[in-house]
Structure formats: C-alpha cells, structure tokens
Design goal:
By secondary structure, the chain is mostly helical. The chain has 5 helices and no strands. The chain has one domain.
Length: 85
C-alpha cells in the first residue's frame, strides 16, 4: 500500500479515509497523522491548518463532510482493489 501511495500521491486522502473506517490503527495512518502534526507545528505551514474567518463556517464544514464521505467510500473501494491485487 505504501508503494502505491508513493507512486500515486493523489490517492493518499482516499487511502487515509478508507483506513479511518476499516483499520484506524494502521501504520500508514499513524505515519500520516505524525506527518500532519509535524507540519501543523511548523510556523510556515500553520495557515494551512487554521481558518481565518469563522462566521460562515457551516457551509465549508458541510462541504468538508460531504468530501470526507466521498473520500471514505472511494478509499474503501481502493483498499479492496489493492487487497485483491
């Protein structure tokens, strides 16, 4: 799975979402979470993790939730395909 993710970086969000539902304690997810924590702690990347305007947070939150559901579904399908291959 790691080799596939390195060859196809755009698949990482799908793999992460699928693993969050199927195997939340996987080594792949732990590594991604550690990487995100390191990036979040870096001042030059903090603006990627913090929102500036909270007034209209419900609309983006709804869109993020819909995107998360779609990624999770695609990730489960991708994991099944990788497991079968």
């Amino acid at each position: 799975m790691l080799a596939f993710a390195l060859r196809h970086p755009s698949a990482m969000p799908l793999l992460d979402a699928g693993l969050a539902l199927r195997r939340p304690d996987s080594a792949f997810r732990r590594r991604l979470l550690i990487m995100a924590a390191i990036l979040e702690a870096q001042p030059q990347f903090s603006d990627k993790f913090l929102t500036e305007d909270q007034r209209f947070a419900l609309v983006p939150l709804t869109l993020y939730a819909a995107r998360a559901v779609a990624r999770a579904a695609a990730g489960i399908i991708l994991l099944a395909w990788l497991h079968a291959a």
